[in-house]
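Tip: read the tokens left to right.
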């Protein structure tokens, strides 16, 4: 009987970027809108600040993700190039190194040597990348994917508090945006946990708590100084 398993490791790259983008989109835009609304009762000014925050934030998230994940990819490629050179220059030492890794993972020396030999014959660089460097096809850095996921999710997240500000009476914007954004953050935390197969409670509590702190801080600043922040 065939045994089917479902794992979520292949989602790590885009899921991390998407959750980060959506969370930042909701939180930063909601905080901006709440801070401006606490200081300025002109809806056009509030929405303009929010839209500017959405565009700037999405571009910033995309650029930041692309640069950071590209740096990771560069480091991975450099390690692979070094490993490829070492395999060409000293194959026996690399074989012993691979066998030693399997010994530390519980195999006896003879079996570890046999496994290392067979994997080396099949795909030496792949075996060392996976078992020595921790690089696999499932977790390899993908800068473009991360940048697109982050920018798109930021825009979607930012659109939620903006829509709330557009549909709510001006006087109620600080409270309505704060409350609904906390709800959006809680839903996002639950969705990301479910997608990643993790328990729901901790991510929901974590994102709503820090979201409340951020929005409270910007509202206080806007109220104290009476200017757009």
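Filled-in amino acids:
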């Amino acid at each position: 009987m065939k045994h089917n398993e479902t794992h979520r490791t292949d989602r790590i790259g885009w899921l991390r970027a998407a959750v980060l983008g959506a969370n930042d989109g909701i939180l930063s835009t909601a905080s901006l809108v709440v801070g401006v609304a606490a200081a300025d009762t002109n809806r056009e000014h509030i929405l303009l600040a929010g839209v500017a925050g959405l565009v700037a934030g999405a571009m910033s998230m995309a650029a930041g993700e692309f640069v950071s994940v590209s740096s990771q990819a560069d480091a991975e490629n450099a390690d692979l190039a070094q490993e490829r050179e070492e395999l060409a220059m000293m194959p026996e030492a690399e074989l012993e190194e691979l066998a030693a890794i399997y010994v530390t993972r519980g195999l006896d020396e003879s079996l570890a040597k046999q496994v290392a030999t067979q994997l080396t014959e099949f795909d030496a660089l792949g075996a060392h990348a996976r078992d020595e460097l921790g690089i696999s096809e499932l977790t390899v850095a993908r800068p473009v994917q991360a940048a697109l996921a982050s920018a798109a999710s930021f825009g979607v997240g930012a659109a939620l508090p903006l829509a709330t500000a557009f549909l709510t009476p001006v006087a109620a914007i600080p409270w309505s945006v704060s409350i609904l954004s906390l709800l959006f953050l809680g839903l996002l935390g639950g969705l990301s946990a479910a997608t990643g197969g993790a328990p729901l409670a901790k991510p929901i509590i974590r994102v709503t708590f820090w979201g409340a702190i951020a929005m409270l801080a910007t509202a206080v600043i806007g109220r104290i100084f009476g200017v757009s922040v």
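Residues 43-89 form the longest helix (47 residues). Helices lie at 12-39, 43-89, 91-104, 109-131, 143-167, 173-196, 201-225.
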